[in-house]
């Protein structure tokens, strides 16, 4: 195990570390869904001088070194570029991370009443241990889009005066049979419905008794707050996430406990670095994508053509329209596929191969390959690129480590690395090691968050 990097910092570095982590916690609190992350990132980017690429194109402007632009896809995917001194067709330095996290989604026809209780029917998103989501305070985030195009933002459960919601569990006194089940079956997907009401609507004299009075009362409240009808659930995107703010963890406040750190710990640190770096020879890029937790599919996932299309726009605004130059730009780019790694947990040491594990306070983690077992689904980075990364990190004084995701035959995971590698660019997985990955609350080391920002800054300046 390497030296604990907390012992290496001077007062100035500790001050910067604390500043970065306080800003990171604020971003976690404000960005609990992919839409919220994109909205927050745009505000931060525009404050730093970034312009929307469509506005640049509409004005007929050409881009030059130092210009900063961004593009958005369906409010769930964002890419930022800072134009470098060299032609874009010579390649870019790309930081790519995902902003979706495991959660529970509300179905399109969700509201029902059952024996005096009102529920929302749900469908979980991504890889979760379902039993972890019961009997704890939950919040509701998202949008309601009415037929006329009106968009109502929803965030219930975060303010201390808000109500919260819960998924119920069976009391231990009656749970003998439940406790005999496999962990994957203790709570099944159809049992993850959200409890949202118990009070019936007040009867109006002469109208008779309401058949589903509790459901009716929920609809009344939604109508009052959001001008929402029951049919509007069909065009709503509502996500159920843990309620509450990111918190310091440990008596020494050395860690952060929060929902959604996979992969927002890499997304926000990439964004911080992107906004920090003012100039570089190569064009820098920060790419924040959706749908990684379910295979990077769909119009807002990495398998979509959004990024490729924006690069084509970028080439047109700098070097003139050229399909060949677009292909060259993609093939000659370098990328850090910034995704979290599993931190070594001594409570579950049997799941790890210690020599090849990521540890807290050892800095930014690089994974030559992710995937599973026989490297299935992995991007296996080439040795020359890894050597260049090592040199860049050492020159910038960044603490880093190389690791794998658990024991070889035990499992594994996937990232967006292999998708971008299809263009022929050099790609390696990198990110912050976390404990409790995919749980409602994940743990990161503040020191590793700091080293990630330093590492991503160094990468963006890499020649």
CATH architecture of the largest domain: 3-Layer(aba) Sandwich
Secondary structure category: alpha/beta
Major beta sheet summary: 9 strands, mixed
Question: Kindly state the mean pLDDT as a whole number?
Answer: 95
Residue windows where pLDDT falls under 50 for at least 5 positions: none
Q: Could you give the order of strands across the largest sheet?
A: 1-2-3-13-4-14-20-16-18
| Apparent shape | globular
Distance between the termini: 31 Å
CATH topology of the largest domain: Aminopeptidase
Helix content: 25-40%
CATH superfamily caption of the largest domain? Zn peptidases
Q: For this structure, what is the CATH class of the largest domain?
A: Alpha Beta
Strand content: 15-25%
The radius of gyration computed from the alpha-carbon positions, rounded to a whole number of angstroms, is: 24 Å
The tally of helices reads: 12
Number of strands: 22
- Overall number of domains: 2
